[in-house]
Design brief:
Layout lengths: L7 E7 L6 H8 L5 E6 L6 H7 L3 E4 L6 H10 L5 E4 L4 E2 L5 H7 L7 E8 L8 E9 L23 E10 L6 H18 L4 H13 L3 H11 L6 H16 L3 H18 L3 H4 L3 H15 L3 H12 L1
Parallel strand pairs: 1-2, 1-4, 2-3, 6-8
Antiparallel strand pairs: 4-7, 5-8, 6-7
Length: 306
């Protein structure tokens, strides 16, 4: 008997994305079986563009809560699997087969895809993010911003896919977004002060806004919180990277801490799903210890990693 074909629902939240939405939806039109687009207050052609792809478009009153909007989009879906994309993200068809193969694996519920940030030079930070998960088993997002689903899910049910989400943000809107996200993650941290996720997120946004000393305080606090080791690894990395330009001895201290955490926890599921860590370690070690052509090497490293 032939197995039933598993269906994928794209779930996306949008607001005033007429300049970029077409590219995103067009990139997955031959992959997904359903498009759920939740609009949080557009005043441009966003909903018209979504309609042109046959998307099911729903309005949602914005309440400063990304999880609430994402969870509403999931509630409107009917597919066996959920694909999460933002309007400034897209996939390529070469990766579709990997995704289709994964959704027929009954041993996993959540998949992390490679995530490639593209700046104006078409280079930038590489990581992994949750992009695909099984529907109708109660998985929901948590957090006002930088929302996540992995908390509370059996780590044996996570895995990674050899597929990439390309993230190409509208750079003219980036600063305003940084300030808004910073306010939301600060509110979330006030609700959950013992969360390393919110501590490190506050650090990242404060750093991007130029509040370097505040960022450092958040990253130091992250190292004190009992949580997933991936947060300690990134906190130690950000501290080492920050101090490289300010105090090379402190940078080396945090880099040694980073290596120690990695060696102690490299088999932890939260670290396994971030294989980019090993590459970051190798690159940064060369820069810190070789001390050769520092300005050139470090600037290139910053462009690629943070």
């Amino acid at each position: 008997m032939k197995k039933p074909i598993k269906k994928i629902s794209l779930c996306m939240i949008v607001k005033n994305e007429e300049k970029i939405l077409f590219k995103s939806l067009n990139s997955v039109k031959n992959l997904v079986d359903e498009m759920i687009v939740v609009d949080t207050g557009s005043s441009d052609r966003t909903k018209e563009i979504a309609d042109s792809f046959g998307a099911k478009v729903f309005d949602f009153k914005w309440i400063d809560d990304f999880s609430a909007a994402r969870n509403y989009s999931i509630s409107k879906s009917s597919g066996d699997w959920i694909l999460i994309l933002d309007a400034d993200e897209y996939l390529i068809e070469d990766d579709f087969e990997s995704i289709r193969k994964c959704i027929n694996d009954n041993s996993k519920d959540v998949y992390c895809l490679k995530w490639q940030f593209l700046n104006e030079k078409k280079t930038g930070f590489k990581s992994f993010k949750v992009g695909l998960f099984r529907n109708k088993i109660g998985i929901r997002y948590q957090g006002l911003a930088h929302e996540e689903i992995l908390k509370g899910i059996d780590s044996s049910r996570w895995s990674t896919i050899e597929a990439t989400i390309f993230h190409e943000p509208a750079l003219d809107r980036q600063k305003d977004k940084e300030a808004y996200y910073y306010e939301l993650v600060k509110r979330q941290l006030a609700l959950e002060p013992e969360s390393a996720h919110w501590q490190i997120s506050c650090g990242i946004h404060s750093f991007m806004l130029g509040f370097s000393s505040i960022a450092k305080e958040h990253w130091i606090e992250t190292l004190k919180i009992k949580d997933r080791p991936i947060f300690w690894i990134y906190a130690a990395f950000y501290l080492a990277r920050f101090d490289y330009e300010n105090n090379i001895n402190d940078s080396i201290k945090y880099f040694e801490k980073l290596k120690e955490i990695y060696e102690d926890h490299k088999e932890d599921p939260s670290v396994i799903i971030h294989p980019e860590i090993k590459g970051i370690l190798d690159k940064f070690e060369n820069i810190v210890y070789k001390k050769l052509d520092l300005d050139k090497d470090f600037q290139k490293f910053k462009d690629e990693v943070f």
